[in-house]
Amino acid sequence: MTESVDVVLIGGGIMSATLGTLLHELQPDWKIVAFERLSDVAQESSNPWNNAGTGHAALCELNYMPQTDGPLDPAKAISINEQFQQSRQFWSSLVEKGVLDAPSTFINATPHMTFVRGEKDVAYLKDRYEVLKKEPLFEGIQFSEDSRVINQWAPLLMQKRRKGEPFAATRVPAGTDVDFGALTHQLFDHLQDAGTQVLTNHEVRSLKKQKDGSWNIKYRNALGHTPGRLNAKFVFVGAGGWALKLLQRSGIPEIKGYGVFPIGGQFLKTTNPAVVSQHKAKVYSQASVGAPPMSVPHLDTRVVDGEASLLFGPFATFSPKFLKNGSILDIVSQVRTHNLWPMLRVAFANPDLITYLLGELTKTHGKKVDSLRAFMPTAKDEDWTLIQAGQRAQVMKKDPKKGGVLQFGTEVVSAADGSIAGLLGASPGASTAVPIMLQLLKSCFPEQYGAWEPTLRDLIPTYGQKLNEDPAAADESMSATADALNIAK
């Protein structure tokens, strides 16, 4: 007889961990099973070396507030920051409840900076600063064109900088560095302690909807190929790029027209104490022409397992795999009659992206360090090693006007009856896992959601509010989570 459970989570990343934790807090009587095809959770995009770990709050990322011919619009930056505040509140509550370990095991205070060169970008950055300094969620943002001030903020940016070169920087002391691998492990550890089955080395092979709206799931042990089956009332597919493949196998009509374009990445990394000790910040700049937003260059402090290092990148790579541990046939096996035209239209409409990728693929180690020297003029080739980051599966989908568009965000695709949902896309991803999963709960569990709201307000005190519209509430929330997480406000 097939075992029946309430919820199945497919994929052992931060999204599944967040959703599982929320559901356990809301419905502790529900039976949850999680599947991960690798030997441990947090081995793909949630792994700390497979992402830049920025705690995306739009404090330094220029692509959330792009330069246009008209006035700068802070709406997207404010929205991302609002979402990150929800994540901070949720993590703070879990620390207080003992679900998460000491905050320093997964989040550390790290100022967020933006550094630009050239008169045009300096003028843009100053305009951006003038707009954001008026917004409550960006309180404390600083701007300078003075080399002495920037040298105090991040000495490696200024050493041997060419005289007469226009440059400017902004700095927000309240930025963070988040180890999403550690966070994912801690959430899954708690779920296991609470009775959730976390089946690693298990791969879901098929999803078939039943007449009662539930899902029959066939899986196998990735080591011994032992088959198994399960019935679930609700399924979440948080399997990175493979989410597309599994949603296609489910047969839901909502996935029609979707495809994904995989982009890999590499980072230069140093653990040289003499270098690492001179830089404590995440410093972003402008993207190259044609580069996707996820490839904006940045020089980041990382803290993983208590050890600080610096990463610079990313440098785009190409692999047909949808996951770092995927199949070389992934990019071909996604093709269906309903998504072929949108994908072709994306290819025709993005020649700059193709040119950018080809340029990135031809860069030698020395050329990559040359790119770093635009940030850090004193960088030495021998101090930096190249590491392979994770795969990002960018969403391609139908568009009524263009035929197909390439999307650089995250998108939840769910069945009309809410019995199955999956997450496609990349950045800002992990940093906004909590609001993304809250929206999924609201969409997929409309009958239960009203009864859940009091618990959600306990976990996220400003749930349902727009903090940026209430300066006092914004200040109170940021101060409270800063104290709980032991970070700057």
From TrEMBL:
Pathway: Carbohydrate metabolism; tricarboxylic acid cycle; oxaloacetate from (S)-malate (quinone route): step 1/1. It catalyses: (S)-malate + a quinone = a quinol + oxaloacetate. Its EC number is 1.1.5.4. The keyword Protein transport does not apply. One of its GO terms (molecular function) is (S)-2-hydroxyglutarate dehydrogenase activity. One of its GO terms (biological process) is tricarboxylic acid cycle. Its cofactor is FAD. It is an enzyme of class 1 (oxidoreductase). Transmembrane segments: none annotated. Coiled coil: none annotated. InterPro entries: FAD/NAD-bd_sf, MQO. Keywords: FAD, Flavoprotein, Oxidoreductase, Tricarboxylic acid cycle. NCBIfam families: mal_quin_oxido (TIGR01320), PRK05257.1-1 (NF003603), PRK05257.1-4 (NF003605), PRK05257.2-1 (NF003606), PRK05257.2-5 (NF003609), PRK05257.3-1 (NF003610), PRK05257.3-2 (NF003611), PRK13339.1 (NF009875). Belongs to the MQO family. This is Probable malate:quinone oxidoreductase. It comes from Microbacterium aerolatum.
